[in-house]
């Protein structure tokens, strides 16, 4: 006994001694009523100071694991030592038989569990997360310290389901600067886009059980829609956004509960819907009274052309658009802060669903983001990040033109490009062959609602070094050519 005690750096020694002794008591190595070694003795055995053992024993007593007899020493508390189970009474369940249909489907659709892992040295185009080397940590640290100094006590207590008021006010103005008419609208802060989407889908009553979306579209959105039991109708994409004729036909054929759309720097195609199409789309949705869930996740990552207003701005004082915003690509996905801007009554309902589910989004995260934004850091950061991503975007595009010139490449900005090979070509087979050569990407079929897209792939370039972008796309191009014969 006592030979397997190992000290970890960075944690107070007395706590480690206390935890170690607890472990011995719980596993039955020390029995109830048994006398513990003297503090001097244990200090020598564990090679720690006697004071550390004195504090550890006091802690064990506080936690109900030991007691002291005046003048006789410390003893193991009887009940504390009786918690270990007897093997004969071990109770096991087969949890796989107890899962809900939703959990089974979530597991089935979980590509993170089944996706290919990048081995060390692999050039990976699978991620569309921001490049963390661009994060201005000093300003984030300053924002944290500044906000804690102002109201740290308040921030660490429960907050409001709607969100942190200063951040809401800031984001409302931010949306107003995108041309949104805020009359009759309110905002709810969420844990990123993904929670906002889930909350909206939970809040809207299911009537037809059908939802419209672009085809292809964001994989996580497809997953969420399926988990909510919606049938998806995917509208094909063209170079300037979804095909309006196909949309009109779909609308005429049946009823839809809503449409989920990513009009700017769409995932996975990177396409920005043209202003003309946006108007045409809004007309159709108004005519058929189908609410639009607009995903504005990438709007700020524009490298050329002029600003295109979000659909919610085009809706004016109308309330048919539910806008979901996120700073996951524009700033830091680790903060998990997003927002829903929508009709006041709908936000009121969303607030109650949010409160029932998670109470509120971390006020600490919201307040750090608020202070960071308030200090003008977003503008400075975006300037730098845009310049960096633009260089990579142009390089990736140029490499695609050079090495896979026979494909169609789309992407007007953001952190990825989308490549379409000739009909019949398999990007799954290409992926397997490229992986052998140390390059991976995302096969495009996962973004399609109907099993199409077997000849497509997505290239996320944000976290790939320039030399690797060149090398990786050359390998993809060479491998594809070999496959074509
Ligand atoms: C289309 C789309 N919307 C939103 C997001 C961001 O989601 P979240 O804010 O939950 O991180 C992503 C991230 O990849 C995305 O691709």
Report on the structure:
Residues 11-79 form the HTH gntR-type domain. GO terms for molecular function: DNA binding; DNA-binding transcription factor activity; pyridoxal phosphate binding; transaminase activity. Its cofactor is pyridoxal 5'-phosphate. The chain has 485 residues and is of the alpha/beta class. It folds into three domains: 13-82, Arc Repressor Mutant, subunit A; 104-130 and 381-484, Aspartate Aminotransferase, domain 1; 135-378, Type I PLP-dependent aspartate aminotransferase-like (Major domain) (Aspartate Aminotransferase, domain 2, 3-Layer(aba) Sandwich). It contains 17 helices and 16 strands. The strands form four sheets. Strands 4-11-10-9-8-5-6-7 form an eight-stranded mixed sheet, sandwiched between helices. It has a four-stranded antiparallel sheet with strand order 12-13-16-15. Helix 10 (244-253) packs parallel to helix 11 (275-288) and helix 16 packs across helix 17 (466-484). The model has no long low-confidence stretch (mean pLDDT 96). Pyridoxal-5'-phosphate binds at residues 128, 192-194, 218, 262, 267, 295, 297, 326, 328, 333, 338.
Features of the shown structure:
485 residues; Aspartate Aminotransferase, domain 1; Aspartate Aminotransferase, domain 2; eight-stranded mixed sheet; four-stranded antiparallel sheet; 17 helices; globular; binds pyridoxal-5'-phosphate
Short summary:
Its cofactor is pyridoxal 5'-phosphate. The protein is of the alpha/beta class. It has helices spanning 13-26, 39-46, 50-62, 101-108, 111-114, 137-155, 165-176, 192-203, 219-227, 244-253, 275-288, 311-314, 344-358, 363-374, 377-403, 427-436, 466-484; strands at residues 66-69, 73-76, 123-124, 185-190, 210-215, 231-238, 241-242, 258-261, 292-295, 321-326, 338-343, 408-410, 416-420, 439-440, 442-443, 456-460.
């Amino acid at each position: 006994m006592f030979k397997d005690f190992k000290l970890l750096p960075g944690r107070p020694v007395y706590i480690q001694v206390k935890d170690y002794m607890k472990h011995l008591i719980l596993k039955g190595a020390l029995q109830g009523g048994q006398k513990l070694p003297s503090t001097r003795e244990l200090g020598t055995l564990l090679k720690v100071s006697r004071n550390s053992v004195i504090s550890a024993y006091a802690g064990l007593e506080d936690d109900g694991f030991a007691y002291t007899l005046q003048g006789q020493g410390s003893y193991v508390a009887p009940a504390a030592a009786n918690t270990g189970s007897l093997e004969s009474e071990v109770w096991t369940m087969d949890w796989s038989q107890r899962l809900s249909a939703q959990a089974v489907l979530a597991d089935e659709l979980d590509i993170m569990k089944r996706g290919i892992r990048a081995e060390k040295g692999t050039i990976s185009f699978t991620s569309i997360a921001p490049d963390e080397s661009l994060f201005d940590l000093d300003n984030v640290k300053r924002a944290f310290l500044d906000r804690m100094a102002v109201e740290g006590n308040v921030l660490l207590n429960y907050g409001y389901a709607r969100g942190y008021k200063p951040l809401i006010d800031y984001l409302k103005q931010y949306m107003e600067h995108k041309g949104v008419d805020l009359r009759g609208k309110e905002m709810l802060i969420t844990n990123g886009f993904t929670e906002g989407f889930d909350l909206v889908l939970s809040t809207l009553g299911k009537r037809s059980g059908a939802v419209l979306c672009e085809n292809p579209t964001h994989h996580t959105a497809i997953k969420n829609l399926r988990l909510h039991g919606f049938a998806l109708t995917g509208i094909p994409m063209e170079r300037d956004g979804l095909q309006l004729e196909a949309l009109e036909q779909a609308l005429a054929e049946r009823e839809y509960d809503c449409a989920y759309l990513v009009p700017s720097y769409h995932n996975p195609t990177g396409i920005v819907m043209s202003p003309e199409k946006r108007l045409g789309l809004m007309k159709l949705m108004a005519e058929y009274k189908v609410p639009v869930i607009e995903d504005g996740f990438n709007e700020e990552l524009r490298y050329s052309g002029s600003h295109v207003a979000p659909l919610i701005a085009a809706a004016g004082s109308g309330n048919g658009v539910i806008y979901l915003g996120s700073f996951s690509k524009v700033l830091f996905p680790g903060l998990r802060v997003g927002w829903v801007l929508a009709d006041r009554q709908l936000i009121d309902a969303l607030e109650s669903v949010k409160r029932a589910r998670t109470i509120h989004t971390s006020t600490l995260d919201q307040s750090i983001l608020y202070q960071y934004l308030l200090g003008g850091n977003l503008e400075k950061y975006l300037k730098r990040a845009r310049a960096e991503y633009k260089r990579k975007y142009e390089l990736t595009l140029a490499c695609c033109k050079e090495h896979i010139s026979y494909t169609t490449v789309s992407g007007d900005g953001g952190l990825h490009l989308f490549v379409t090979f000739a009909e019949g070509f398999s990007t799954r087979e290409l992926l397997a062959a490229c992986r052998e050569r140390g390059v991976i990407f995302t096969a495009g079929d996962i973004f399609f609602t109907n099993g199409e897209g077997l000849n497509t792939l997505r290239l996320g370039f944000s976290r790939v070094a320039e030399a690797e972008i060149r090398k990786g796309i050359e390998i993809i191009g060479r491998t594809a050519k070999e496959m074509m014969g």
